TrEMBL record:
Database matches in Gene3D superfamilies: MFS general substrate transporter like domains (1.20.1250.20)
Alphabetized PANTHER family for the sequence: INTEGRAL MEMBRANE TRANSPORT PROTEIN, RESISTANCE PROTEIN MDTM, PUTATIVE-RELATED-RELATED
Chain ranges passing through the membrane: 46-66, 73-93, 105-124, 136-154, 166-190, 210-233, 245-262, 297-315, 356-378
UniProt-listed SUPFAM superfamilies: MFS general substrate transporter
Topological relation to the membrane, as annotated: Multi-pass membrane protein
GO-annotated cellular components: plasma membrane
Keyword Transport in annotation: yes
Record keywords: Cell membrane, Membrane, Transmembrane, Transmembrane helix, Transport
Protein name: MFS transporter
Subcellular location(s) per record: Cell membrane
Domain Major facilitator superfamily (MFS) profile: 8-382
Tree of life domain: Archaea
Length: 388
């Protein structure tokens, strides 16, 4: 790759690192603030967490449509990222979980504009033969930052929510500036929409099936998304807040590191087999996490994160070949976020079902995902190559 393209891609990868630190530091801080200081129920924590996801789902599709109207609007995504710096300063001013949920909606809207645009740019700017691996590196750097962000939270607890949000704000501003520089370097390669021609580049797998699998997988792995994960692990295993955050961070980091090999296999071997494998792992993850022991809970979380981290770059690679690639990538972000919202709300409502005691103790809120697991496996088996 020529130097200009390489520099732009590297900057986008760095933006995944800095932006995720900002987001991941804020997530456990807000989770425990809502649960412990504001005394919110688990359902309320789920609403707080999923309000972010719902807003991100809607703005992801809007951002993809908007980008088709003019590629200059990609810079709006960078501005939205910097807008998060202002939004997080409002959290220390809240006195009810409803106010926290309102700010989460704002955060979600801004993130839905910024991150899918970055994913679209890195996908279309990368040569097809290495697209899944480069996109996996992008997500991997985000996972490294997720681990570090959890450590930053653990080591800055004494600063309080206000001090932690100032650190988060600084990283959001830095991320937006890096995105602006990257888009300037890659501007000539940004093609949100192109004509569909018989001899043109086409998706290697059926895009509609990819969207269905993305939706089902996101419903299942919703228990690993946002504030609800920290509260569930802490209460299920009786862990202190700082230890909970660092262990979840390590699970995400290891999952992301191993997901690169899944992307390599998808690039050089078989995309279909890797989608089927990730579907199987995602389907099993809530069943493992439902068993209330440390090895099984963290194994379930690891499988869910590994499946999701592996599937994301493969799905972006497939959809980047679609003639309306910006809408397709914005659409898959929207579908996944909407499904995560539904899965998170289902978990929040089912949390009151309690536990089933026998040889092992099972969390019934996670067992309710079993029908979705079966549907995901069925869709993975039915996945066809484009043109078959």
């Amino acid at each position: 790759m020529e130097r200009r393209r390489l520099a732009g891609i590297i900057l986008l990868i760095i933006s995944a690192f800095t932006g995720t630190i900002a987001f991941r530091l804020a997530t456990p801080a807000i989770a425990f603030y809502t649960r412990d200081i504001l005394k919110a129920s688990m359902l309320s924590v789920s609403i707080v967490s999923m309000s972010f996801v719902l807003a991100r789902a809607l703005s992801s599709v809007f951002g993809g449509l908007m980008l088709e109207r003019g590629k200059k609007l990609v810079y709006l995504g960078a501005m939205a990222m910097m807008g998060n710096a202002i939004a997080v300063q409002l959290y220390p001013l809240t006195s009810t979980w409803v106010q926290v949920a309102g700010i989460k909606l704002l955060n979600g809207f801004l993130n839905g504009l910024s991150w899918p645009m970055a994913q679209f740019v890195i996908a279309v700017a990368t040569p097809k033969e290495i697209r899944a691996r480069v996109t996996a590196v992008y997500f991997f750097f985000g996972s490294i930052a997720s681990l570090l962000g959890n450590y930053v939270y653990a080591y800055t607890i004494d600063l309080g929510l206000g001090g932690q949000m100032w650190i988060s704000s600084a990283f959001f501003v830095l991320t937006g500036l890096i995105m602006v520089a990257s888009y300037a370097l890659l501007y000539g390669l940004i093609t949100p929409r192109r004509k569909e021609t018989p001899g043109g580049e086409r998706p290697s797998l059926d895009p509609k099936r990819i969207l269905i699998i993305a939706s089902l997988m996101a419903v299942i792995v919703a228990f690993t998304s946002g504030e609800i994960t920290y509260v569930y692990v802490s209460e299920a295993l009786g862990l202190e807040k700082a230890r909970t955050a660092t262990l979840i961070g390590w699970a995400g980091f290891l999952a992301a590191m191993l997901s690169y090999f899944a992307s390599w296999i998808a690039d050089v071997r078989s995309e279909r087999r890797m989608v089927l494998l990730t579907s199987l792992m995602a389907a099993l993850s809530p069943l493992l996490a439902a068993i209330k022991t440390a090895p099984t809970v963290f194994s379930g979380i690891f499988l869910a994160l590994f499946a999701f981290q592996s599937f994301r770059p493969i799905s972006r690679k497939v959809l980047a070949s679609y003639h309306r690639s910006s809408l397709a990538i914005g659409g898959v972000n929207g579908v996944q976020n909407l499904s995560t919202f539904l899965g998170g709300m289902l978990f929040g409502f089912a949390y009151s079902l309690g536990e089933l005691h026998g040889l092992v103790t099972l969390n019934l809120a996670l067992l309710v995902f079993s029908p979705v697991s079966v549907a995901l496996l069925w869709q993975g088996i039915r996945l066809k190559r484009r043109g078959d």
